[in-house]
Amino acid sequence: MARQKEEKLRQVLEYIQHYVAENGYPPSVREVGKSVGIKSTATVYTYISALRDKGFLNKADNKKRAVSLKSNAVNIPLIGTVTAGQPIFAYENYEDYYSLPSEEFGGDDLFMLRVSGSSMIEAGILNGDKIIVHRQENANDGEIVVALVDDSATVKRLFRRDGKVILHPENETMSDMIFDDVKILGKVVGLMRSFRT
Amino acid sequence: MARQKEEKLRQVLEYIQHYVAENGYPPSVREVGKSVGIKSTATVYTYISALRDKGFLNKADNKKRAVSLKSNAVNIPLIGTVTAGQPIFAYENYEDYYSLPSEEFGGDDLFMLRVSGSSMIEAGILNGDKIIVHRQENANDGEIVVALVDDSATVKRLFRRDGKVILHPENETMSDMIFDDVKILGKVVGLMRSFRT
DNA sequence: ATTTTTTATAAACATTTGTTTGCGTTTTTG
DNA sequence: CAAAAACGCAAACAAATGTTTATAAAAAAT
Predict the structure, then answer these.
(1) Chain mean position to CA B62
(2) Residues of A with active-site annotation
(3) Interatomic distance B6 CA / C4 C1' (Å)
(4) Catalytic sites of B, residue numbers
(5) Residue B104 and residue A196: Cβ atoms within 8 Å?
(6) Which residues does A148 contact at the CB level (< 8 Å), separation at least 6?
(7) pTM for the complete prediction?
(8) Alpha carbon distance B27, B50 (integer Å)
(9) CB neighbours of B95 closer than 8 A, spacing ≥ 6?
(10) What pLDDT was estimated at residue A2?
(11) Chain A interface includes B148 (CB < 8 A)
(12) How confident is residue B5, by pLDDT bands cut at 50, 70 and 90?
């Protein structure tokens, strides 16, 4: 009966996936059992635990319907407004969620920002674009970063020269900003644009 | 106390959205209450019921954590390769799925394509970008389209002059392509870029 | 100010559901 | 075939959680 188990595990996982897709919330242990043809909740329980141990899903202890699939998507919040004083990751600032494949934008601490202005036009970042930012306090020379200048977030390419920090706009008509120090909010790792109005 | 209610409803809905995005499964009534600052489960219960009645979410009776959001996302397939003979929307060509907010990219018949080449660089469309395309056979003057030229998909701005179709690259170093007729695959409605390797 | 309506609370109740335990059954192993 | 391991089951238990009811507090209306 060694093979049976693998087969059952697959069935259970598949059912959970379907159930979540259909209902928007996870199934209970008993619902899984009924559908897969297992009469004991204990058996289902061990299967689900096994799936968790193998890393196919997440499971919170003692909570009802608290399994979730390891999806290959990350949910990234769009930050409405960056306020200087408050932490970026405060719920109140979340305007929307975007769900993107994690292979591409993987990792934690991601957020999105709406770009205003055309200072990065030559890097292909236009006014109105939404940039995907990895939150970090530092960045390497030449990387595109989001920095806090005058209490608002600005996107520029970062350089360090002679102990100074240079925020370089990719736009011929604009000139570099030079600082002794600058607060970096994160590094730009992606971008999204909509041509709709 | 008339206004309070609307505000609380909004808070509850927002919290549920955040919770689901973070955890993959819905919150319990008590968790909602704790976060929104309502001490009675009964109050939360009425709010959730109200949200269901107003159509903001689905809710199953007597089940734990069985609320689900009315999904506002569209799943858009990334088309691996465009083959001249075969229909674009053949499953075999689907390379991945991207789930994006429908307010922004709403509608059916959307697909994504990977851009190769830099013919649209001045429109902010770079080599390696993924464009979001609405499938349609026609487009208006001045719109950016995906057209089939020599059995492969190309992205250009479309113009019609004197009965001819002009595919105009947004790149100084390249020149227009002029045809009597051209097969249009769709109109570009969005774009996604990843700065990762 | 008084009445009415709305909103919030606490407490109790009813179910669902996660988890554990012990025992039977099947499959594998030697 | 016998022993061991793996698997499944039922039943019971323990929590978490949805739901209802009666009551208090607050806000709005009169």
Answers:
(1) 34
(2) 119, 156
(3) 21
(4) 119, 156
(5) yes
(6) A82, A84, A154, A182, A183, A184, A185
(7) 0.73
(8) 17
(9) B77, B78, B79, B80
(10) 45
(11) no
(12) low
Report if CB A1 to strand D is under 7 Å. yes
| Residue contact A23–B105, C-beta within 8 A | no
Give the containing element (helix H, strand E) for A3. helix A2-23
List the structure tokens of B118: 């830099």
**CA gap A79, B195 in Å, rounded:** 20
**SS3 of A99, please?**
strand
CB A124 to CB B60 under 8 A? no
**Sign for the pseudo-dihedral over CA of B113, B118, B119, B124:** positive
Q: Counting Cβ atoms within 10 Å, is residue A177 exposed (0-12), middle (13-18) or buried (19+)?
A: middle
**Number of Cβ atoms within 10 Å of the Cβ of A183:** 12
Min Cα–Cα distance to chain A from B189, Å: 5
Residue ranges of A 5-24 with Cβ closer than 8 A to chain B = 23-24
User: What is the Cα–Cα distance from A155 to B128, expressed in whole angstroms?
Assistant: 21
Place of tokens 């009776």: B61
The mean pLDDT of B149-155, rounded to a whole number, is 87
Classify residue A54 by burial, with Cβ atoms within 10 Å: 0-12, 13-18, 19+.
exposed
For B:50-109, CB contacts with A below 8 A are 58, 60, 63-69, 71, 73, 96-101, 104-105
SS3 of B120-153: the string is CHHHCCCCCCEEEEEECCCCCCCCEEEEEECCEE
User: Is residue B69 a contact partner of residue B52, using CB atoms and an 8 Å limit?
Assistant: no
Helix (H) or strand (E) holding A44: helix A41-53
DSSP one-letter code for A196: -
pLDDT in tens, B109-133: 899 999 988 999 999 999 999 999 9
Tell me, in Å, how far CA of B71 is from C1' of D12? 40
Which nucleotides in chain D lie less than 7 Å from some protein C-beta? 6-12, 15-22, 26-29
What Å value separates CA A86 and C1' D18?
36
